[in-house]
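Bench notes, bay 3.
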Amino acid sequence: MIADATPPAIRSLLEWKGTWLIARVAIVTLYLVSAAFHVTDFREAIAEQVGYGMPAPALSAALAILVEIVGSLLILTARWVWLGAGMLGVFTTLGAVLAHPFWTMRGNARFEAMATFLEHAGLVGGLILVAVAAERANNGSLAHVR
């Protein structure tokens, strides 16, 4: 078996502490932008919730904004990353299932909904990886990450 050695240049990039910050910013940017748009146009946020068939659309919109902001800030500050990633992961999973049920569609709409659903699944995977990296950093196995 051939060892999978990371090239020194790549290892240096991965060990650079700025990489951890860039990764956290990248994973939460979508949520922060979404929250900002929904805060500035709360009527549209409510209409979006109505479109998804959510009960109590105004409350649902407010909770969505709260989860997007609080979850993102927890990840950005590297404090309770597991909680922030969990909040955003559950939110994203619910959004994928409720807003993009490709299994109920046909034709091009099915393809578009499936692509969006799978993008959501990728985001959830990224959030899981952020939580894993934070846990390893807190336990000292990735001391350079902090």
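Next record in the batch:
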Amino acid sequence: MRLLVVGAGSIGTRHAKNLVALGHEVQAWDAAPGRRAAAAALPGVAVAESLDAGLAATPAAVLVCTPPSVHVGIARRALDAGAHVFVEKPIAAIADDVPALLELARRRGRLVSVGYNLRFLPSLRRVKSLLDAGRVGRVLAARAEFGFYLPAWRPGRDYRDNYAVSRSAGGGILLDAIHELDALGWMLGDAVEVFCAAAHVSDLAGDTEDVAEVTLRFADGALGQVHLDYVRRAYRRRLEVIGAEGVIEWEYPSQRVTVRGPEADRAEDVPVSDVAADMYVEEMKHLVRCLEGREAPMVDGAEALRSLRLVEAAKASAARGTWVKPS
């Protein structure tokens, strides 16, 4: 299958390598000459002379791996060229730009799949299956947490060149770490109201929020709390779901899933099948199956839009100091 990766930064390069390893024909293109040169050095990856040239090669799908502010524009060009579209999260920087994109995809008869790689992590999928099976009873509350020091995210690259520090490019911890909001929505359903405090509190460069505390109220009455930051020197990513009959805990670094309760002293580490599976490889395998018509996207455009509107509600709440309902 012929595929075009637009954006040859960290995630675009990862997807290109994985697709080549899976046996596909991969072209790449990036607006930056240096990244085009780096992509050209990847085994099995050809570099398009221009975006137009890459689209003219009739790829089955275009993977949009650029800063969020240009996701929609590139995705529209891909759809106009007859390609299916995979867009890295978030689907866009501005939610109101998305409905017209999805309508265009519908008219063209093309898929829009959005890259939320944590959904392909075996340990997190195990948490989802435990909740679906009612292992801890009715969910009452949940807390997700992600934090890491932004300059350490990509060793060897100046963090000030990262879109994360630029509001106009679609950066900021709320959009960048939208995974946590997506995961809670995936597991607990739609959030109906949000309250958020978010600000640029550190000495890091940029004009985006680097710490955010988000409180969510879900349709069934459960409450959620999400902490996100660019400033934590020691990496942390974890999830805790509190049910009427116990607690499920998940830690990303260890890939451990633990169920506690209902007895106070009971704790059980739950086995995770395929714990060593690479979530990014599984994500690309899933994309190919979608393109072949064998599966529907795990996260389609409509679902990705819901998470984006939740981020926008959180930003509005932080600005107003009030609870906000996602539009």
